[in-house]
Amino acid sequence: MMRRGANLPSIGEFNQSVVLDAIRLSPGGVSRVEIAAQTGLSSQTVTNVARRLIAAGLIREGERLASGPGKPRTSMHLVPGARTAIGIHLDPSFITYTVVDLAGSVIARASTATPRVVSPDDVIESMARSVDALVDDAGIDRGQLLGIGIAAPGPLDLEAGTVNNPPLLDGWDDVALRDALGRALDLPAILEKDVTSATVGELWSSHDADRDDFAVFYLGTGVGLGLALDHSVRRGATSNLGDIGHVRVSDRGAICRCGNSGCLGDNIAPARLVRAAAERGVIALPDLSDHVSVAQAYAAVGEAARRDERAHTLVAEMAADIATAVVTIANMLDLSDIVFSGAFWNHISDVALPEIRRRVGDSRAYMLPHALRVSTSSLGADATAVGAGCQVLSSAFAPSDAQLVPRALA
Ligand SMILES: [Zn+2]
């Protein structure tokens, strides 16, 4: 769905973001006439806005298109490198750093294991050093950096910018991550729940006009759901939307900390797959209390599942549990798409994706009159970090979604 503009002078800034969106989503270039038709803006408004965007260096004019009657049309193109943003994903197992440009493309990246048994202050300090190193190594112009987007596991207090004791991040109780990192790097910072950032990344990078109502099924060290309805990301009352860990998906499984058994989060937890694979002799049992060792073992199980029957069965069982949750969620929200994302997804997707598609297709609980599209995020393993960076761009250019406007653009 293309956002529609309005021809009132008082909301010029909104129109600026509408026009920039239209150009951003047309990598092959788009003419003023086409933008006017897509957005409902008058051609005079489009021309005025385009002039401002060109002056700000955000777009450029391309070749003249002489086809058809009337004046030749000049195509307009995004200048992707005109502004950049830093996107960081803090997962209990690893921290991913990206620099993204206006097109949402990654121009630099790095990742490290999340340090254990140190204070969050030390982690934040090392995060700041990692960002500095990344920006310097990649030769990023600091004057064009709009800010930092940080994606972290919930629960979060977005107003205070704090991380409030996520189940898998020991010692992160009421930590002012946003302000501490923003201060350390002297840049405006946004904090967002990981699944929400992943969803923003999908919205920012998706050229699929039909993808308006979708969920991002997120497999990190924990599991979560990000949601977009009517092409807008949803956050809920306290921006903590998407905890699906205790959705009951089967009769089997250990007793969850909530007291039930068969909870999605427990059933598909990386440590659970790794332990089961070790019990069946697929891999050696790693230290299950160490997230990094578990992540490495999980990758090995995913790799083995392509040819080892025992590993394949374990991943297929996980896929069955995921499919049960997918059907419930899609029914409840009338979704058109489920997009799988998160660093742990990519290790199992070869086996899990076809299995989930098959099970959703066969499910007698599936109630929607349309087929559900089930796919893997095109943003790859860095999707959440990229989304956090896109969120900074989105906040800068889309007043409707504004949480901060780091800098005047023109
Ligand atoms: Zn539970």
UniProtKB/TrEMBL annotation:
InterPro entries xrefs: ATPase_NBD, HTH_MarR-typ, ROK, ROK_cs, WH-like_DNA-bd_sf, WH_DNA-bd_sf
Every HTH marR-type domain range: 15-61
Top-rank taxon, per record: Bacteria
Pfam families noted in UniProt: MarR_2, ROK
SUPFAM superfamilies reported for this sequence: Actin-like ATPase domain, Winged helix' DNA-binding domain
A molecular function (GO) term: DNA-binding transcription factor activity
Entry's family note: Belongs to the ROK (NagC/XylR) family.
Protein name: ROK family protein
Record organism: Microbacterium betulae
